[in-house]
Amino acid sequence: MPVMHIKDPKSRQLDHIMEEKAIEFHGHGGPFMVIGLRMGTLALRLLDAHGWFDVHTLARLNWAPPDSCVIDGLMTSTGCTMGKRNIEVHEVDGIAADFAGYDKIIRVTFRDSMLQMVRTILATQDDSKVRALMDELELSSDEQLFEVKILTENP
Questions:
Q1: What is each CA distance from 88 to 19, 29, 81, in whole angstroms?
Q2: What is the rounded CA–CA span in Å between residue 25 and residue 145?
Q3: In a domain, 125, yes or no
Q4: pTM for the full model?
């Protein structure tokens, strides 16, 4: 079977189209999926990566729902997949991901204060509050949501 090459890079911004693709893939929308979408798009911008093949993702989180829903957001936004073996998962507390591009590796960590807010709102089981939370996660600045650290950088 011939290999098809992707010409256009993945979108580096979360938009309605990406969110719809993620919902189709994941089966429903939710705040943890949005977190994964935001982490992945941020990583593509910071690594100047096209996605699919020039990035590797190591998700660091609790590998059980709802936290693991981040993984589907990461796969949708970066194009990394289990089938291509360019995404891995390590079970830890919190939510972070390491992204390796051609010339550096970065870690994007979801801020603990934001994670606590997400957990508190989800515990209410109030659909309108959860939808408002998703909107807030989509519109918040990267700095409000994430801490970014360069782990390695090649000259």
A1: 22, 22, 9
A2: 24
A3: yes
A4: 0.93
pLDDT value at residue 6: 62
**Rounded distance between C-alpha atoms, residue 5 and residue 13, angstroms:** 22
Token pair listed for 94: 């919190």
User: What's the burial of 35, exposed, middle or buried (CB within 10 Å: 0-12/13-18/19+)?
Assistant: buried
Nearest alpha carbon to residue 35 among 3, 57, 2, 67 = 67
* Residue 58 one-letter amino acid: L
**CATH number of the domain bearing residue 91:** 3.30.1330.130
β-pair partners for 57:
87, 99
Q: Is residue 123 part of a domain?
A: yes
C-alpha span between 86 and 54 (Å, rounded): 9
pLDDT in tens, 36-92: 999 999 999 999 999 999 999 999 999 999 999 999 999 999 999 999 999 999 999
- Averaged pLDDT score across all residues of the chain: 94
